[in-house]
Design brief:
The chain is mostly helical. The protein is built from seven helices and no strands. The longest helix has about 30 residues.
Length: about 180
Amino acid sequence: MVVAVPVALALTDRHLAGASPALVLSTTAGSLAVSAVALQPLLARGRRIARHQILGSVALLLVLVHVAALFAEAPDDAWFALSPDGPTRARMALIATIALFGVVALGSLRKRLPLGAGTWRVLHAYLAVVVIGLGIGHAVLTDGALDGAGTAVLVSLGALGLLGVPAAHLVRTRRARERAPAD
């Protein structure tokens, strides 16, 4: 249900009336990515780590499809958006995307990295907050298919995701302490 709301709002918005297939694909992928990113912390706090990892990879793939479709739509505009002179919303998206690569890499390489469990959790949670905060900020600031009612949905998803990060962190930390041998 959470996934359907942003996509339904975006695809039924007048902004996409007569839009190119690339813009529709970009908007759909971006809307799905917003939901995936917001749901991530909810899966991390439970015993659904495999789903959490899969959804993280799916979120990254959706972001890459979103960006690729924007390049297909208007390559010059997409390159400008990625430049230091690009709009704030584009720089927010770029930083969120880099942080998302970091989150996915941390998740994939968890066992191989020379980090303690607590350090890994804090770093992973920090990058997740960057992804959610800047990703939702990007979506709110971008004029388009998620204006109006979509803004309220985006802010709600952002709040859900941001509140889910410390909740997930606390649950995972408590579980780790319970598993640790008593002194």
